[in-house]
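Ticket 4471: requesting a sanity check on a complex prediction with TLP. Repro inputs:
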Amino acid sequence: MSTVISNGTAENAEQRARLTVDLRSDTVTKPTPEMRRAMAEAEVGDDVYGEDPTINRLERRAAEIFGREAAIFVPSGTMGNQVAIKIHTRPGQEIICEERCHVFNYEMAMMAHFSGCLARPIHGDDGILRWAQIERKITPKTYYYAQTGLVSLENTHNMAGGTVYPPPIADEICDAAHAAGLPVHLDGARVFNAALALGKPVAELTRKFDSVMFCLSKGLGAPVGSLLVGSRQFVTQARIYRKSLGGGMRQAGVLAAAGLIALEQMPQRLHVDHENAKFLAQGLARVPGIKLDPAKVLTNIVICDISGAGMVSADFSRRLAEKNVLCGAVNSELVRFVTHLDVDRAGCERALEAVQQVVGSR
Ligand code: TLP
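Returned structure tokens:
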């Protein structure tokens, strides 16, 4: 439709979008033609009555794949995490988490707003916490301390650069937390990337967690949606809190239809994103003034320190955008590139050329 606009602005914008290499996030992917067809043809019903057959199928498949009793489809990863936190905690408690994690930094303080809890953030090298660190932060059972209510981990760890929990470390945290009477939630927005990096099924990686949230709308390429998996009792409670947040959707089978394709077919292609991220990381590490260790890039996220290039991240990303390459500023020194379905090797090569020009021209 844009071509009929006489001043050409929309047309130019569309052309620009086609030329752009968008590495801001793996959330930017467009649904594949197969997803669009499935969405158009989806059987639907009212999911608030539990009558949407496509959503029911998606939830059953998610539960099966994760080896759990039940799953619930939620509109976003944020809602999935916050519903889980609400179920596991009571107002006035603390939640132990890594200091750069999503639930603490990017979910609008909802652990305080919705659940009445405070974060007890801990720094983990590469975003990975160890049980010994967690244990030291569990508050004594004395009436004047806010009691620890939950441990929340993130795998892969987004802002630590898509890092992956070694299974024995995550297993130890779960076992020891349970022995201390604490539930453990996993923000597994990108847990399929972790599973690929470790060569293990998601069910095995996540089996000891009390609840797991994972996203269809990131590397798996669906337009919308996440799932929360756990016991039947947990999911029954999750339905109540999802509704209270306004997340009770009606004929959302159109979304679940794309989600089913994401869940069944897209994990098999994530290796392409990992290979592209590695390629990007190796190229970036060769640019003078940019610092990162490509050996640490195990999944689809590359975070590098650009402070040696003599500019702050906001300027770096603005200059890169002028060359039709988009990245994200994590803070004034760190920049994030995320590979995904809609960026190929040629796009990564163009991104590297643009970075070289931006850094070289300062
Ligand atoms: N992450 C987004 C931004 O919010 C930072 C991104 O571009 O990476 N957990 C993790 C680990 C995430 O990375 C995200 C989204 C979420 C939860 C929330 O998912 P949504 O955006 O569906 O609410």
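Notes from triage: The chain has two domains: 10-28+269-360, 33-266. Leaving this open until the requester confirms.
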